[in-house]
Records
---
Amino acid sequence: MKRYFDSELETFRSDLLRMGEVAVRQVRDALQALVTGDVKLAERVIAADDELDDLEKAIDTEAIRYMNLRAPVATELRLVIVGMKASHDLERVGDEATNIAKRAIRLASEPPLKPYVDIPRMGTISIEMLRAALDCFIHADKEKAIAVVKRDMEVDTINRQLYRELSSFMVEQPGTITRALELMFISKGLERIADHATNIAEETVFLSEAQDIRHEESLKKTGLSS
Amino acid sequence: MENTSPAAAAPTRSLAMPLRATPKDDAEPVPTLIDVRNLDFYYGAKQALFDINIEIPDRRVTAFIGPSGCGKSTLLRCLNRMNDLIDGTAVKRGAIKIRDIDIYGPSVDPIELRKRVGMVFQKSNPFPKSIYENIIYGLRIQGVKSKTKLDEVVEKSLRGAALWDEVKDRLHESGLGLSGGQQQRLCIARTIAVEPEVILMDEPCSALDPIATAKVEELIHELKKQFTIIIVTHSMQQAARCSDRTAFFYMGKLIEFDATHNIFMNPKNPQTEAYVSGRFG
């Protein structure tokens, strides 16, 4: 049976998915701006962050109103709770993308320290994780969500490798310190984006199964070894 | 009284005996007080309950929910044989045991049973007597005459029903002069005056305003320390607020029975989910 306020939940759900799409686009564009030195694209990323901030606030407002007036239970209650948490994660993803874009602008005026290989690889994995987590949100796929959680290790590993590599650059050639630090922060930002994707994946398991899989070390013990 | 082993619980044992077990922590497994097995119940030719199996825990609040006509009130009334008063009703299969005693067994006196299993109705129904006489009605019937004893029961029951402070200065005025919420608490006081083991509540708050409802719910929370409570309610929020377990019925069948938190957070059955989230139909 349809209820007269079901459309409110549909709006909530579609706003959340729209937020997911915007967040993925922001990360992708920020990385492209970095790799191609495209300052204009980086500036567009920075300007577009407001869209995510507005969506986060809209989703919170819808969620609070729904809890207050509709007294949701069961799947609906879980959807509203998870929606609020996931929108917060996506907003943070947007912040990380903005930071990457700002650093891309600074790096664009200098020669590249080294060819971009690891960072685009991290970016690709993070974006794939985000997309998969959002898919789990739509399709309630626990196995797929766990696969996202496990992939977080891959990004962590590359981040650590890059940290070591960039540290030796700085030690050996102090002239590279500024650029190396920018890249370190970018790497850390991508690692955080993968963490947010992991959070969203974990939240989708709570949505579909009412099961809290956060901080389950056993789920994370695969992926590349460092 | 101490717990009785199943072997000692011969069907002839009197249900009027006090039947109390030691209070258990929520963390501990809760003993079953009422055990319903394979129950089929009929109103004449019409079957109202189909193969009901449910174990009601001791000194917890169990809520029965479900749409009108789903059988929840019928099952409630089976538990103290109130249905016996309706012509043509019959338990055609199965059994209801309270502490291993089959309450439909030949040796069980329904009047004695109803002392052990009290009932509070949707519409408060005080007798057209004073507040005091309402409370001691059951004891008078049992032949209790001692004024001291009766005074004691009146105060204890009214305090137990959170009504004492409001009525202590007008105990000999008519119970019908009380507000709706007070009348309902008076009926609860009257029920607990005979020290039952179980209190059945059939939509006890549906005619009450939110303040009176909150008082009754508060009272339910207090009473469960001493009594096993089963409440039929159409308010999902009430079931969620005041019960420990919830049973969902539909078309005469028990669809799902679980901890209330599970029923409202993660019901296993799609029909339960549809009902608790108001999508039923």
---
Amino acid sequence: MKKILMAILSLALACGIGVAAVGCGGSDAIVVCGREASSGTREAFDKVAANAAGDTLDDYSSEQNPDEAAEAGYVSGAQYFSSTGTLATKVAQTEGAIGYISLSSVDESVKALSVEGVAPSEATVLDGTYKIQRPFVFMWNKTVALTPVAQDFLNFLKSKTAQDVVKEEGGVSLTEGEARNDEGAIDYTAPTAAPAGDKKIVVRGSTSMNDLMDALIGKYCELNSSWVKESDFDMSLQGSSTGREAVDKDTTGNVIGMASSAEAEDTPRNYFNVALDAVAVVVNPANEISNITLAQLYDIYTGAITKWSEIK
Amino acid sequence: MLFGKRKNKASSLPKTEPQETAEGVVAETAAEELSYDGGITVKEANLHYGDFHALKNISIEIPEHRITAFIGPSGCGKSTFLKCFNRMNDLVAGCKVEGEFTIGNVNIYGNIDVNELRKNVGMVFQKPNPFPMSVYDNIVYGPRTFGIKKRAALDEIVERSLKQAAMWDELKDRLNKSALGLSGGQQQRLCIARALAVDPKIILMDEPTSALDPISTGKIEDLCMELKNDVTVVIVTHNMQQAARISDKTAFFLLGDLIEYGETDQIFDRPKDKKTEEYITGRFG
Amino acid sequence: MNRVKAKEYASKALFAAAAIVCIVAVVAIFVFIVIRSIPALSKIGFFNFVFGDVWNPDRYDEYVTDPLAGRYGILTMIVGSIFSTVGALIIGGILGFFTAVFLARFCGPRVKRVFGAVINLLAGIPSVIYGFFGMAVIIPLFANISPTGDGAGLLVTSLVLGIMILPTVVALTKNGLEAVPQELYEGARALGATHEQAVFKTVVPAAKSSIVAALILGVGRAIGETMAVIMIAGNSPEIPGGLFGSFRTMTANIVLEMGYAGEVQMGALLATGVILLVFIAIINLLFGLVISGGKKNKGGKKLSLGVTMPKWLNFSAIGKVVSWVCAVFVAVFLVLIIGYIVIRGLPHITGDLLFKNYHYGGEPALLPAIVSTLLLIVVSIVIAVPLGIATAIFLNEYTKKGSKFVRIIRSSIDVLSGIPSIVYGLFGMLTFVVWFGGSSSILAGGFTISIMLLPTVIRSTEESLKAVPDSFREGSFALGAGKVRTIFKIVLPSALPGILSAVILAIGRVVSETAPLMYTMGSVLQPMPDGFLGSGATLAVALYALAGEYKYMDEAYATACVLMVLVLILNFFAGFIGKRLGKKFQGENNAVRKTKKQSKQSSED
């Protein structure tokens, strides 16, 4: 009896501590969320979000800020996440949060904002009116010849069949040569017999392209079921930068790299863009705001704007 | 399991002849003649723990098939001396033994097999230390160590040892029960039975009854009297009545010196040394 | 030499060889990170590195670059790590200590068993789950009282870390309290003390050294934790501004930037690992001091836990109430976190998810991950357990007690258990992955995890071996048994329950570990692994990958559920085996304790 009393008493106390935390209401402050520096999503976002003078967040983090106490990054106190999942969870759970994730990851738990009055969609990405976008890139080594199997797989990745998979996966298909940085999507016919040499294909790079690559490999295996095994693929994804590094270090010609941000013009790698992806600016569904400008984004991430009321 | 392969002497142990045993285990020390049968002879033994001189120049002859008691106050070195006879002191870091120790015709600090020595010189400790296994497994632990694997032979050893320790009737129905479920006194007698199972020539007892009640103590004393027909018993005790009751010879130690050694009656009735007299009359210690 | 002696020598050689392999492996990691970080340290300058408050690396910096374009100061991270660890120690230490007191002295056996088992379950939950729990449940709660409008930061990190160290703190403290001889308690009661007074004034002070040990091990765990922290700390490399400021810990820094780091940056990250090691070493040193201090205090000097209570306060009565409150608080927390996982995950566990093979492009399915997890457990246990046990045997049974050399080995093993797991991952990536054909494989992951497990397995086996009373060994030697027979027939069987629980804990760690496996075994959902040389994601990695793009959150929570069930099964299995062994060595624990106590007494007289 005494013990039961004791238990009830302590339960009340313990709950009391908990309830004390649930007190006063929300606040107007903006909770700035971003990705870690190696993220392709961040790279795409930082290169586009710019103030009136044309300074981008990318410039801000790499040049203007090095002597500030904060990291080469965003405003002091900003939060950094190591994956789309954690960032999206954060935004979904936090009323005042703002962040950016791949459009394909947006669901009803977060709200994608229009940027400069343009909502992100396949059409607005293709015609370029939605500004924060990035290509999905396939890369391979420039100096080492690809193995016959890797070459065949690359041909498949470049093909119209692959573009069908892109569409199925909800990506923005790219078939024209200029945007792809190659001669346009080609026709792929599966070889009648297994190409010579080792069959292993190494896939490294962006986690954002995980689903797409999964589907592409699935399709490729289906087309070449007579000689390809799923276990011939060695896929390990830790971000766009690791994809670039793996391609650069390739000595056997079997590495296909993936990056979810544009390759530089003077890139040391062969590449083509397989699809476009919009980077959606997301806020909590409870947030009333629906449109934002690039300059406002710049101000938010650099700390010039700290309250949602300053935007309305 | 690592010892399981020595089949040559597997079944010979229960009623083993000394020669056979020696042949089996100490094959390479050409030990046909080695025999632990006989008394213990110690000449000019010195023992140091690091800088501490624990035993000083001790010489003693312990006769066969007798009970010899070591008495003396705490810290006098009697337990330490006892442990020299089966070289348990080897396990103590920084312990150095000098002098000549002979058991039977074996120089036990010479080039011999220590395990064989310990098989022949069993030991019972102050605190009962049965292993955490069944009564049966406790007793056959030693024989199995020396290669006996046949169930029938082991059964025979268990019965013989338990009878020797006067526990067979108590325990024959509980052989597969854990030894740790026994009472303290039973545990200690089980340890004696366990020591007997390998057919030792000598049993060393290090204050075997100090943790026991008077009834259990009595049983163990009776047991000692029985045992001396088969083995030589050396017992360390704090209890002078016990020494007087059961021992044939008594040695009195003080601060690492052997003060007096003789027939028990003589030591207790007519001590030659004044310190002995003071101790046994209870003036110190 | 006869055969017995030959066997003795061969076994000793074998144990020594195992010890050498272990020590080499473990030292290799140490040397690896130190050597790799020296150029960076000398380039950056030790002072600038440790006391610089700007972390702004440039991935194009190389050792030949002059001057460096980036700034490499980790002071903010050092402060962040210290703050969050101290916070975790305060929260987890208080909760853990009082919960352990409650379990050991204020509750019935049934509550104790169930509650204890659930707390152990906490140890097997992957830290990613703690992270999501923190984000989804605690942070929104804290957001209400946060001046910044967001609950992330120091407070939530401390709380979550505090919860994460609970299993360690509770288990060790409870063991310590239970090892206090009953006579002490009875003596206090006989002098008229109440139950509470006897517990808090007599039993608790007597268990002081194990309580402190528990706290210090908890600190080690908190300072090395990564995956949960990077989800709730905010990760901005600045000194936390209050309880809700965004900050970054040293481990988070390593994980966040390891993937893409340039030459100098990588060196700086590894140097961060070295600084972490130094911290762990300092903690262990404190540990040693406390232990030896505890021994000195035996003489009856006043023992206090650093808390001096005014006389008019009835400390014991308050202690009892606090114990109840803490225990209930922990219970509520346990129900919350387990309930959270179950509610989010259970509805999404389907037959297809569990039992279908995964194919590229298909719906997520966990069968390959389950198989990979089991294969990884097999590999790592087959490697780490025999090696670890043999090493522990060598250290405990064959070396001289108090030998300086062994002491050094022991403390370096302790230090190595504090290396963040990501560093093991990096080491594995540069060694095992390369050895096994250049790509991630279960074997490479298994070797990496094995090295990671070794310190824990060695130390906990050693503790179990130490708990075997010397009287058993003496008894065996006195019967003429050699060392090898004594070890295999007497010492190991007696130590088995302890060793077994160490193995089960190790399996729990294999199951819940993420970071090192992503670099060595596979980081994405994959089809059925192609044997031990194939790659594959474990359940914990699959969980991370599924949650990674926010597309399969339901499946991720379902995976967490599956993982929890797996850990539960493992714990029950351990309990079952423990019971079976307990029956076999009936009453052994009591005997062990008794004999230990007695031998202590006898050594005093």
---
Amino acid sequence: MKNIFTPFENVSKNTRLMIILVWVLALFGVWFASSMGDRHLFPSPQQVLQGFIELYNEGLVVHIGSSLLLCFSAIIIAILISLTFSYLSTVPVIQPVAKALSKLRYLPLTGITFYLAILISDARTMQIWVLVVFMSTYLTTSLLSMVNSIPQEEFDHARSLGCNRWEVLWEVVVKGRIDYVIDVIRQNLAIVWMMLVTVESILVAAGGLGFLIKNSDKFMNHGRIIALQIVILAVGLSIDFVLNYLRKSFFRYSKI
Amino acid sequence: MNYSSENTLLYVENLSVAYGDKTIIKDINLVEKDVIRTGEVTGQVIAVVGRSGTGKSTFFKALTGLVKPTSGKVLIADTTTENAQNDAKEVHEGDIGFVDQKYTLFRNKTVYEALLFALRNKEMPKEAKHEQIVTYLKDWGLEKAKDQYPCELSGGQRQRTAIIEQIFSSGHYMVLDEPFSGLDVGNIEDVKNAFKLITKSHEYNTIIYSTHDIELAVELADSIYVIGYPEIDGKKMTYGSIVKHFDMKEIGLAWKEFGLGHLDIVKQIKNIMLQS
């Protein structure tokens, strides 16, 4: 028992499960305690459950589908742009452009949306491109770091086998690091998912989880807000789990 | 033991490499010829020894064409032509196999896939490639590791795969940067056997390796080069160069069991290394 309070101590699987269980119970305990009485900060579990039921009846599943579709459309375009620049960053003439794209992550989203609004009239397309612009900068940053961290020995190895420079790029960077790309997407997904809800709440036309939050927010419906937060967290964690599972299943050699 | 030296297989002239203002190696000259012994196929085993930081790895990279020399040249026999005795060519990437200290392999290719990739430019039917790979895997004790990725291989298996890859790809020359570092007794024996397999399979096969284990250098090599900081006009230089060459064939110690004569050479090399 004393061990669980000692730094760097290894504990058994059962003890670890027990610790998690205690924390979950503590969380529920705090939730119940803080939602009792007339004045309370959090909605009670009953209110949240009621929120779930209301959301389900209002088409929660359709809204989740809408958010996921937006997320995947944006992520596919963003990853194509980022991969192109990151892979080509090994070519001296492209390298400054790739680095500049990565630096654009410091640009405020408001400025970007302003110009996108001038160029794009359709709300859904606007949502996708706001996310694409935002995600591309972060994805490029992570992918550039991935390319830069490949040891010189791997390039030398390919060259010693008679690979020309484009073959080295293909074998070592493109084919040799596909699993890393999936992990980069997974790691950046949290930011994307967070942004997705914001983007949807700015442009409510196409629905989605962000739209639902904005709606609930307007009417101060705490039960619905917490219920939605739980849904968003659960969907985000599920995507994270699926991507990690895919990486491990398809790439046996991947030990990231 | 009777032997004769014939065609020049490796010719290095005034080789220098500098990174910016920093000269790493300078004025390296060496000539290695095909050693002929009657009744048996004898490849060449060349050892390069020297203290850390004297430029051995840089020398190897220049030798294999992975680093462009600042000056000088590296020539090898052009064994792709009919008249290999007289044809020489400047070395390019891929002409000389290179196995680094970490036995780097493609992380996303199994042993079989890696070997098949190494054979990709060879003009031979698919079945012949498969046969060749299977034969090597059997001879080198890698049959069970055929479908394993590098992260699933032991150090010895990785090393053997890296060596076979280079044999398939580059032909007769192979450079190994510290092939014995971090290996246990069993793995060291594996590498020694690998050397034998390579040198017994073709007259032109030439292994060039570096090691910090002077005993192993003296035991296995028939030519040993000591790299150190040369002294010119009483002043020690800051770049690496060959400070001594031991021709074990000439001395009469090559291809013999390790004995007192070898021990004497070990002492001499250690002294030279400490002084340079």
---
Amino acid sequence: MTAPSTAADLTDVYPAYLDHLADADEYGAVDVALGLLDAGLPAERVLLDLVAPAQSEVGERWARNEWSVAQEHAATHISERVVAAVAAHANPRPTGGRVVVACMDGEWHALPPRLVAEVLRLRGWQVTFLGASVPAAHLVSYLHQHDAHAVALACALPVRLPHAHRMIEACRRSDVPVVVGGRGFGADGRWARRLGVPWAADAPAAAELIADERALRRVPPAQLSHLADDEYASLVRRRAELIDGALADLRERVPATRAYTAAQLDSTVSDLGHIVDFLAAALYVDDASLFTEFVEWLTGILTSRSVPAAAVDLPLAHCATVLRDFPRAVRALTLGRAALLGAAR
Amino acid sequence: MTAADVRDFDPGDGRISTPSTRRAPAWSAAAPVRPTAALPPLAPDRGQVPPDWSEVVEHFREGLVVCDADGVVRHISPVAVRLLPEVVPGELLAAAGVRGMSDGIPGAFTHRGRRLTARCVPLSGGRCCWYVEDVTESVSRADALLAERARSAFLAVVGDKLGNPLHPDRAAAAVVRLTVPSLAEVAVLVLAPRSGRARWWRASRVDDETPMVDSGVLAGGDLPTAIADGLTGIEPHAVDWLVEQAVDAGWLPGLPGVESAARVVPLPGGDTPVGVLLVARRATRPYDEDDVELIRAFAARAGAALTTALLYRDQAEVADTLQASLLPVEPAETAGVQWGTAYRPAQAGLRIGGDFYGSHRLADGGSLFFLGDVSGKGVEAAVFTGQLRQCLQALHRVESHPGRLLRLLNDALLETTQAHGQGRFATIVLGVARPEREGGLTLTLAGGGHLPPLVLRASGEVETVPLRGMLIGVVPDQRVGEVTVRLAPGETCLLYSDGVTEARGGRRGDEQFGPERLVTALTGCQRMPAPALAERVEQVTCDWLAHGDHDDIAVLALRAVGPSGRPSRHLHAVPAPADPDQQRETGA
């Protein structure tokens, strides 16, 4: 392999790198990354310009149904091995305080926070990466035992926002400043502002924020007064009832669903659960766009798997009928159905 | 002074009110709201005998100063004389130099140590009358109330911030941060020295927002006398030399050395103070008795928080060490095997539980591996897993045949449980993996009542290994199941605990995940590396739970690495040997 020396070479090796991910070829992928390092590309650039975009491509290939879940998991594992190899190669000496990086409880997208952790490590912080889906109790007991300068929490799916909020509050009670990141807080971080927590768009932004202790401690108040209407709490209580109702409705109107296998039924129930949970998250941060973005995404996923958009519209209509006394929920559902029409067209 | 002079004016005590006057109440609580319509307007003359007005006016709470059109004082009531002795009849009011009355603008001001309010009302003939009231007491009552409220609010914030057990360093930083700006412009906390070294934290005010916090270490002998005294529990009362000491020590950046006020309070600990807090601010705001009382109340809370934090740290260190010894150890790298593990204890705050797994290298190049689950939960169960793992660690050196090893383990276990008089038992799958010459692995498995392992074939199918057997630790002559499985390169064997299949979730949260769903989740995953596969099992299980309670979850996956696959390397920078000699690499 010829040694690449400029950023243009990174674009040259990118397709080969993606092929290694597709083949789950750990050594091939690691060799590409180490080759770039040997050619003088800084480790941070390798992580952010090679590993990160390749991993988003992996997610998109899954969404387009080009890759199976198994392929996606395998590729993600290879990406993690590449990050480990790059980190071991760079081996920076820690000079700063301790920063704890973790995924929210229930959040399994561990690679983006892992990249943040490594970028922080490269910038001299002593980083502890607690991994995927860290239970709040585990994180809090860790913070009680180890003095941390800051906690960086990642959330890739907005459906976790209510849990994320509880976790943020738990960290705050330990008097440790919190930074959040990930697509779960909205592309512009607007739901982080709602929850009153500093948000970083990417790893370098997170590093800058963590280096500025006064910015970390400047906490804008959460804007959650809308929760007083109890719509969120009621929806969470009625989750099972809504899923059951939507499933019965689907079976009545779409005869094909009656012949579903157990696995198909499970994934239908899981999709219905997602609809209710995303609706609940939208009510929690009082932003219907959270729900409409989800509906557009789900429609894309299902369409690529040959499920008609009408299969999504039925449960939305069902929820709107059952929840007619909840004005915020009805509004989100109405906008969601409109988005569905737009996405299906 | 005639009735006409006072007719349209409110004496200010609220007893008489006329519709034409508008007056802002000095303190709203004391000004009763009365409907003005209920009172008849003052009649100019009802034919009554007029009282002696000057005598009446003398008993007003307000003092009166009447000036003529030129501003010369013409009349002054006894109350006004007492409040404003420098105002002399026959001279210009402005000449008296009473601040707040000379410029003709009404308002509140301080005069001779009293809080006064004054308002000027025009009279007929260009004259005017000043109504002067002494509001010292009501103002000081209101001030005291506000100060008390501020103190309670401050202590409430302190209670909130220090109420949780914190890491000692974080608690110390929180203490100094809370002190600024409410109690001080600079605050220094010195912890009681441990092995001759005293750690300190300092917060200094930068602006109205967050203070700057720094910290460091001092040798115990270098402490200023006042601090060293404070650490023995003595609170120094002579305050002037305290500032000098602190300034000499270079502790008060940004404060003028001489014109500063400082206090030192011990933070109460167990028997001796846990530390000492020095607070300092500009002498323009000296520390009065109320302030010192507040600092002591704060110190009591801070002392309690620091004591708790230190106690918590000591106990957490012990717990952490014990927990670390009970955590499953990641399998050692073995030629021909790619390991994958996942472990999620039921109690999230605790990192340990009743599930266990592990592996040991065998002298013949093979590898012993196991995964099991003991009866009971939490710490007790974790301790039991530790005993089992130690048993296996010792026994595998004398017996490496899985079936015979399992029987030995059963006997050892039975002996200990009988000795302790407790019925403890466990389920386990124990196996030996041996690499084959043409690639792939041979697994010899022994079953002790555990869930049968799954095998992911290269075709994508998932097989259940027919492995039976009885629980271990129950009967002396235990029945052990034994099976041999061959894994072609790229095929994987998966061991898991019942925390996976008995996870409750689904639509209503009461449905078990079950082995069928597990098989479905694994089907088609034959190309996944073992760590990714173990994580996938953990993830689908936790997704099924949807944040509900769960039992301990443990997964151990072994994937046969093909002969074409490069051998594992510790360091990626180390070049792979041209002809990998597995025996030499793994050693014995």
